Amino acid sequence: MGNRPPPSPPPSIHALITFYLSEHPSIVGFRWSHTQSWGSTWSFLFSSISLYLLVSLSLSLLLRPLRRPLPLGPLPALHSLALSLLSATIFAGIFLSAAAEIRDTRWFWRRTKTPLEWLLCFPLGTRPSGRVFFWSYLYYLSRFLHMLTTILAILRRRRLLFFQVFNHSISAFTSFLWLEFSQSFQVLAILFATLVYSLVYGYKFWTAIGFRGACFPFVLNCQIALLGCNVACHVGVFLLHFFFKGGCNGIGAWVFNSVLNGAVLLLFLNFYVRVYVFGKRERKIIHGDCDRDPREAESKARSSCPVLISGN
């Protein structure tokens, strides 16, 4: 019998993660299509958002006469855990996929762009296919799971906030536009959003199962960080498109997205000025007291602050 070659060593954990999050054939070969991608039509988008609005309003009206909240048991905690894990997976997937796309396509645009400029400004003619758009598609689908947050909040007899419903609806709409028009800036937007969501919902799961929360408004600080990153990236896209690089793909969808983000920013600035410039009493309520249960302070902060990151 001849000498057999030694068996190859098993792949490392890093290699397995990289393969399943950025090199799997279903990820590399993904293509956004109205006929092949579930939920990819305009009719599905508008009907699902309309159904979400109808269910939210109907539940709010039906449960208003009840004096006691409905017992949900561990459902809110499990929902927070699921959103945290899903967000962390999307973050890791689009991070590895963006690195792989830069490695594989840099030869095409390296004379005119840096990797950061590619993340902010897709070249004109970019098609919604490949690794990063697979994770953008998964992020779009995850928006409908986030909508369940509103339903759980209503079932727990929290007041239905207009901005919470507005935020979830607009988030689903804008993430659809990212795919439909191959919008620039979406990779960084998804990276920042999923990183913050994984932290926020992980924190909510932590407090929901009985552990002590932070002595400061954790969710509020995450909202500020996410808004700051979005504003900086929008400024970068504006400069690259109109002054330096001669055009970014999907700029029409980006303009619409910028208008919506501007409305959110104005709402948040109004809150910040009202509380931190003129409202000493409200500032004390939002910051809470470490001698009390920090979850109570966090709950008051969420009720006072615009709901950019919805909680259970």
UniProtKB/TrEMBL annotation:
<keyword id="KW-1133">Transmembrane helix</keyword>
<keyword id="KW-0472">Membrane</keyword>
<dbReference type="GO" id="GO:0009922">
    <property type="term" value="F:fatty acid elongase activity"/>
</dbReference>
<feature type="transmembrane region" description="Helical">
    <location>
        <begin position="75"/>
        <end position="100"/>
    </location>
</feature>
<feature type="transmembrane region" description="Helical">
    <location>
        <begin position="160"/>
        <end position="179"/>
    </location>
</feature>
<dbReference type="GO" id="GO:0005789">
    <property type="term" value="C:endoplasmic reticulum membrane"/>
</dbReference>
<dbReference type="Pfam" id="PF01151">
    <property type="entry name" value="ELO"/>
</dbReference>
<dbReference type="GO" id="GO:0034626">
    <property type="term" value="P:fatty acid elongation, polyunsaturated fatty acid"/>
</dbReference>
<feature type="transmembrane region" description="Helical">
    <location>
        <begin position="42"/>
        <end position="63"/>
    </location>
</feature>
<dbReference type="InterPro" id="IPR002076">
    <property type="entry name" value="ELO_fam"/>
</dbReference>
<protein>
    <recommendedName>
        <fullName>Elongation of fatty acids protein 3-like</fullName>
    </recommendedName>
</protein>
<keyword id="KW-0276">Fatty acid metabolism</keyword>
<keyword id="KW-0444">Lipid biosynthesis</keyword>
<feature type="transmembrane region" description="Helical">
    <location>
        <begin position="185"/>
        <end position="206"/>
    </location>
</feature>
<feature type="transmembrane region" description="Helical">
    <location>
        <begin position="250"/>
        <end position="273"/>
    </location>
</feature>
<feature type="transmembrane region" description="Helical">
    <location>
        <begin position="137"/>
        <end position="155"/>
    </location>
</feature>
<feature type="transmembrane region" description="Helical">
    <location>
        <begin position="218"/>
        <end position="244"/>
    </location>
</feature>
<dbReference type="GO" id="GO:0019367">
    <property type="term" value="P:fatty acid elongation, saturated fatty acid"/>
</dbReference>
<keyword id="KW-0808">Transferase</keyword>
<dbReference type="GO" id="GO:0030148">
    <property type="term" value="P:sphingolipid biosynthetic process"/>
</dbReference>
<dbReference type="GO" id="GO:0042761">
    <property type="term" value="P:very long-chain fatty acid biosynthetic process"/>
</dbReference>
<dbReference type="GO" id="GO:0034625">
    <property type="term" value="P:fatty acid elongation, monounsaturated fatty acid"/>
</dbReference>
<keyword id="KW-0443">Lipid metabolism</keyword>
<keyword id="KW-0275">Fatty acid biosynthesis</keyword>
<keyword id="KW-0812">Transmembrane</keyword>
